[in-house]
Write a structure and sequence with these properties.
This protein is of the alpha+beta class. Helix content is 47%, strand content 15%.
Length: 429
């Protein structure tokens, strides 16, 4: 198993950088003593002449608004919901229609909210990526096509719209009771029969397209506008169309992001406040600090290596997902309902089910990795320049923000458009 797992891990770490390594000391950084730090009048020469102070303990570096992937706890909940539903969809799809519809509505709501809050900003792609929609698109296609077949909705709708006179093939002929003592007579396709013989002669005639079926449990006897399955099919169709539209929008915006330069992503840390003006890391990179007293942290901007990788993955993965959805629609449309392979029903959206679960697994793995590692481009060892009464240089260490940091970054990205309803009266600018 290791022979399969290790190459796979190496491949994904090439596509999505998993870890960063950097070792350096302040003495190795070629700093210009006359260079002014940021927008202040402090120079590196004045900072390097003071005694370096140590920050007691390490501090976390967390993603700012929209800079985090779906937290892995949320992903586990989604998997717990989807995995049994997928299994039941294979054998008894009728039992999970409501679950499928509810799960799709929830995913669409989160995706639309993410689009609205992030504005498709490339640096926030981890929050708005539409990769999760693949499994829901297949789910809605299955509900739609199998309900149409099971309830014969197309033939009934065609009958109701194009052949309104068909419903009058059997009509009660008006006659006086005295003239017809044995009950009313009926006309069926030009033939007149009485009540006694209608069950024997006409009741056995079953023709779904003619709208006459003797079985009371048959869907054809229920007017289509009074059949709940008709409205379930309409809802599934609308949700499927919405899912595809959102995926196309996501692909378009991801391609635009890939065509641009590497996005700059904001990361925040408590030790960057108060009075912090710059951060020097072990790679000798200098990051100006943006103070945000409302959030109680200072933030720096780092090149978004992960974000660029996810822009590429979103463009390629979502486009592949659309292809898989077309394949599944063809399976649902043309494969016979009784077709089986090794006992398994073939008329199922297999591509999107396996593809969707694979995406969930990938997001779970990278959610754990991203929550437990620092972003590429910054080292654990840092020096923070402060300027209160006089320049001060602090040495410290950064650690990953963990699940809490991922939840803050993702939640802020999803709900930032709610403004004061989410942040309260102290909304950050």
């Amino acid at each position: 198993m290791a022979t399969v797992f290790l190459p796979t891990l190496i491949f994904f770490c090439v596509l999505f950088p998993c870890f960063s390594f950097a070792t350096a000391s302040l003495d190795l950084c070629p700093l210009n003593a006359s260079e002014i730090i940021g927008t202040t009048n402090v120079t590196w020469g004045s900072v390097l002449n003071v005694t370096i102070r140590e920050i007691g303990g390490s501090s976390y570096l967390r993603p700012d608004i929209g800079g985090a992937l779906l937290p892995y706890v949320y992903t586990i909940i989604v998997i717990i919901i989807h995995l049994p539903v997928v299994i039941i969809r294979v054998v008894r799809w009728q039992k999970v229609q409501t679950w499928s519809l509810a799960a799709t509505v929830m995913t669409l709501a989160v995706t639309i909210q993410g689009y609205a809050s992030t504005g498709f900003a490339p640096e926030r792609v981890l929050t708005w990526t539409p990769l999760l929609l693949i499994i829901d698109a297949g789910s809605m296609a299955q509900v739609l096509f199998l309900i149409i077949e099971d309830r014969k909705l197309l033939s009934r709708l065609r009958h109701a719209l194009l052949s309104p006179k068909k419903s009058e093939d059997v009509v009660l002929l008006s006659a006086a009771p005295a003239e017809q003592p044995y009950g009313a007579h009926w006309s069926y396709q030009g033939k007149v029969v009485d009540e006694i013989t209608q069950v024997q002669e006409i009741g056995n005639f079953r023709e779904s397209r003619e709208g006459f079926v003797s079985d009371a449990s048959s869907p054809e006897e229920t007017p289509i506008l009074r059949d709940d399955s008709f409205y379930v099919a309409i809802l599934a169709f609308l949700l499927l169309v919405t899912t595809v539209v959102l995926q196309i929008l996501g692909v378009d915006r991801a391609v635009r992001g890939v065509q641009g330069s590497t996005p700059l992503v904001s990361w925040c840390c408590p030790i960057f406040q108060p009075f912090g003006i710059a951060v020097l890391d072990g790679n000798c990179d200098i990051y100006p600090i943006d103070q945000n007293f409302v959030k109680g942290v200072g933030c720096i901007v780092i090149p978004g290596v992960r974000q660029m990788s996810w822009l590429k993955a979103t463009a390629a993965g979502t486009a592949l997902g659309l292809i898989l959805e077309v394949v599944d629609i063809c399976l649902l449309s043309f494969v016979h309902t009784k077709a089986r392979w090794r006992g398994m029903k073939m008329r199922r959206p297999w591509c999107t089910m396996f593809g969707g679960l694979t995406v969930l697994g990938m997001i779970l793995v990278y959610g754990i990795i991203y929550a437990s590692t620092l972003p590429p481009g910054i080292s654990e060892k840092i020096w923070v320049v402060q300027n209160a009464d006089e320049p001060t240089l602090w040495a410290g260490e950064l650690t990953a923000a963990g699940l809490r940091g991922a939840m803050i970054g993702w939640n802020d990205g999803i709900f930032s458009s709610w403004r004061t309803a989410y942040y309260g009266s102290s909304m950050p600018q």
